[in-house]
């Protein structure tokens, strides 16, 4: 109850902001921050709860983005349906990729997920209808009522996706599914021998995680009015999602939210005030700092601090 | 009818035959000892039974059902639970939460039974402790407690007493006796001879993946083949 109340208050504030601010840049930057909250939260379902480090974020995100773009080009589908379709497509990708790769563990799984990104990018480079390597220009439709312009609307849409992603992650974490995922992260054999269907749970986590990443990707072509493979399947998404979760802490749903907000706010600030190149460096520095100083992230740090008092 | 029937079981890793043609029946309610020198295939055998490994040929029948192609979690749900030789606690969870996993996923017990199992194992004082801060003997007890939380009909105890002091062995052994009295069939794998000899009604000795001797504890100790396997010619 407290969760839903505070969620409603925060979401209300975000919507109010979307109407209060006149400066479009606030929404450009805010959109990216919210996008990374969704990506980090989604990443954490497989990477944090189950302990399967996934570098395939761009593959799921990109498939979602292209699903949105292609459906818009072909049928001028409304944004809501694009997002829904992207969730389904990327969820299925998670399921199938999971069937092929989730028997691998540790570093081998991580490598396989990188391969997935390369495969998806190659696929879309060679698909002429979706624009091939040069990409696809898209004309935004008129914004939905009551929005005056498109970017604040996308900002609110992304805020809605944050709510969906966080609520999903929180539900999984607290349910029997979360307990099973934690068990298999600690020891896969012991989990199996305690009756946990590890493969099924991992497939579920991979599908939900991938689906949410895809949903977060769907509005991207509209946000940029453009889509092309190189930037859509960029590994920066993988690093950003992973770093957000690691910095915030992977053991609690709030961790990726805090981590992603801090990380991408700093990145946005740095890329405006200093330069775009430096903002990649920021991820690296923050990640190294947290791995050394607070390996369990901000959440872990505060837990330790509270229990030592 | 036997609770567990193992027929002609074989398993090899590459060119190395870890088990070749092992057949043994274990009766309902039996206390069964499995001994053999290091590398003789004891753990491989029970890995095949519990499902963490798949046997290449032969069959495993539990309570009348062929289970050798089933994943491990289904075998646990059928009633086969095990402890691990090297303790594998769910390290991020408390001792109590460790037990909630099998209680929830096997679903034969109720969640509030966890505390009772911990009491039975002498672990109730540690219920809220993170399992990665337990001592060796506590970890071994946790292995058994977690296996018990699956409410098994067959419990496989894989060296539950290895590395424990004689006093600690005397702590764990009565627990296993009590479980057996409650109707649970127990397979004990153990290197501590006096423990396995005191506990078992029947003992099988494995050497190089084959059964070389089967009988009462008294007969096993006198067997020439067993002495050769352990002590050399």
How would you describe what is shown here?
The complex is a heterodimer of chains A (309) and B (233). Chain A has a domain at 27-234. Chain A contains 15 helices and two strands. Chain A has helices at residues 2-20, 24-49, 57-75, 79-101, 106-125, 150-174, 176-186, 188-192, 198-217, 220-224, 229-232, 236-248, 254-273, 278-293, 297-308, and strands at residues 136-137, 226-227. The mean pLDDT of chain A is 91. Chain B has 233 residues and is an alpha/beta fold. Chain B has two domains: 1-79 and 154-233, Rossmann fold, CATH 3.40.50; 89-151, no CATH class. Chain B has nine helices and ten strands. In chain B, a hairpin with a 2-residue loop joins strand 9 (202-207) and strand 10. In chain B, helix 3 runs parallel beside helix 5. The model of chain B has no long low-confidence stretch (mean pLDDT 90). At the A-B interface, helix 7 and helix 8 of A face helix 2, helix 3 and helix 5 of B.
